[in-house]
Amino acid sequence: MGLILKEQFNEDGILGMWEITEDYGKLLSMINLDNPDIEQLESFKNHQRKLEWLSVRVLLNTLLDKESKIVYGPERKPYLHNNSHNISISHSKNFTAILLNKKKRVGLDLEFMSDKILRIADKFMRQEELDSIDKSQELYHLYLHWCAKEALYKICDKVDINFVTNLKIESFKPKETGLIIGTVNNSYMNEKFTLNYFTLKNYSIVWCYK
To answer: Are the CB atoms for 120 and 131 separated by under 8 Å?
Structure first.
């Protein structure tokens, strides 16, 4: 399937999504890797992890129409080697997504939805957030909260953040696409963010930039 979404959301930002239907050999043939990249790829024991890793880099080059290299800083936060864009990456099951912006911070998360989230909801949500869940769309509503908090976690560099105590999602009614308001309050900041969300093929996707 390959590229299923490429959206320019302002003059400096790009959101892209890839559906992995290619096999390992096909993905490998779509990208040029240097020796360190090959060593890293071959170090993964899990085959699905290899497909995810390759699809991220194929998607990135497709979005930017050129070869780009991802490097990692503290807390495993991704960067582009030439600092041309800020980047956030997410993958779940057969989907990979990348959010890019030349000037603004970015945060992105996507998740394949299953009922396993029912068992862990109280681990990442405040009581008032749990009380606001629409029972008619329970899984989707819970996953939007999870993805929103993951996106906030990433945009704030994954530092000093507890999903319950430091992240708050304002009450909202889930739609197919919409906006979520979230707040990060920790030792580094007290800041409010507007997050975009949508659903596609049983995945929930939330992203933000600021």
So the answer is: no
Backbone angles phi, psi at 204, to 5 degrees: -105, 140
Query: What beta strand segments (E) does 30-92 contain?
Result: 70-72, 78-80, 86-92
CATH 3.40.190.10 fits domain 2-104:
no
**Are 177 and 120 within 8 A, CB to CB?**
no
Ordered by start, the domain boundaries in the chain are 2-104, 110-209
Q: Which two tokens stand for residue 169?
A: 């999602």
Give the three-class secondary structure for 76.
Answer: helix
pLDDT in tens, 112-130: 999 999 999 999 999 999 9
The shares of helix, strand and coil residues in the chain, as percent rounded to the nearest 5, are: 35, 35, 30
User: pLDDT for 143-183, tens place per residue?
Assistant: 999 999 999 999 998 788 999 999 999 999 999 999 999 99
List Cβ<8 Å contacts ≥24 apart for 29-35. 30/54, 30/58, 31/57, 31/58, 31/61, 32/67, 33/57
pTM of the complete model beyond 0.90: yes
Residues pairing with 5 in the sheet: 17
Q: What is the three-class DSSP state of 14?
A: strand
Cβ-based neighbours of 201, under 8 Å, separated by 6 or more: 19, 95
| Nearest-angstrom CA–CA distance, 199 and 145 | 13
Q: Comparing C-alpha atoms, which of 109, 117, 110 is closest to residue 133? A: 117
